[in-house]
Amino acid sequence: MTIKKGGGTGPHCLTSVMAVLILLFSLLPLPSSSAASSAHPSYDGATQFCSLAAGEVAAPERREVYDGGRIIDISHRFHESMPSFESDEGVGQFLWLPESMKNGSKANGSVVKLHVHTGTHVDAPGHFFQHYFEAGYDVDTLDLSVLNGPALLVDVPRDKNITAEVMEFLHIPKGITRVLFRTLNTDRKLMLKKEFDSTYTGFTEDGAKWLVDNTDIKLIGIDYLSVATYDDLITSHLALLENRDIIIVEGLKLGDVKLGIYSVHCLPLRLLGAEGSPIRCILIK
Ligand SMILES: *[C@@H]1O[C@H](CO)[C@@H](O)[C@H](O)[C@H]1NC(C)=O
Ligand SMILES: *[C@@H]1O[C@H](CO)[C@@H](O)[C@H](O)[C@H]1NC(C)=O
Ligand SMILES: CC(=O)N[C@H]1CO[C@H](CO)[C@@H](O)[C@@H]1O
């Protein structure tokens, strides 16, 4: 019997707490082949149960929620076959390891090359307005007080794009400033497919204009790579970004999240001069 050490609580690791319980309550003798014997003698009995063979590291745990579900990660993990706008090939290689310990470097040092509108990401006004781009309205200028605060998660009707009619139907009260729109994109798991799908759900031009004219929404979250439908790609973005007071977060992971009000926390990188950035977004109950 091998018992591995690690931060996780996966099936191959006995946590210290479990080990203590076993110590306290087990009437059976300890397994003689326990890895405990390889642990440093100064460690206490409980942690000895989780010791590792030399050089072995338990696999890390990858989580979608933390603290028993209180914190929900609504960002997608970056990987090579995540979708890329208008491509069938996915994102492809974006991570390299030019400094490698296997090659004699003192540490591993990776390099990333990524289109800034990849995966879960934010758009700055310069994305669709050349004069805003030139004036410096990059992701570093986005208002963190818009990107962080109470947010409403809503489901939109699955049989339509987000038109003015749909926006009206949703009855989002005045005073609500952050809304995450869950659409058919989530049901279709489009963010999990390598091939770009142009039939995704998004805002039509009239839907975007309706939102600007009739709501207080300043943070829009959506569950595929673009907030705007493919047919209204430019016009919807223009309507939403023109006043520079609305922030668009795209490619959110909204499956398995209950409808309701959360505290949203989204933080873009401070990429000077970039009109978009990967963004980490979480919801806190
Ligand atoms: C190690 O160095 C060689 C020669 O420079 C290079 O071709 C190889 O890709 C490197 N390997 C890694 C893992 O960085
Ligand atoms: C949304 O619009 C796209 C075209 O931009 C279309 O392919 C798609 O079918 C529409 N979605 C719905 C649910 O009507
Ligand atoms: C932490 C990290 O990046 N480790 C990498 C170090 O480099 C080797 C290859 O030489 C990788 O296998 C590790 O994953």
From TrEMBL:
Residues 1-35 form the signal peptide. Keywords: Extracellular matrix, Secreted, Signal. GO terms for molecular function: arylformamidase activity. One of its GO terms (biological process) is L-tryptophan catabolic process to kynurenine. Its main location: secreted. It is found in: Secreted, Extracellular space, Extracellular matrix. InterPro entries: KFase/CYL (IPR007325), KFase_sf (IPR037175). Belongs to the Cyclase 1 superfamily. This is Cyclase.
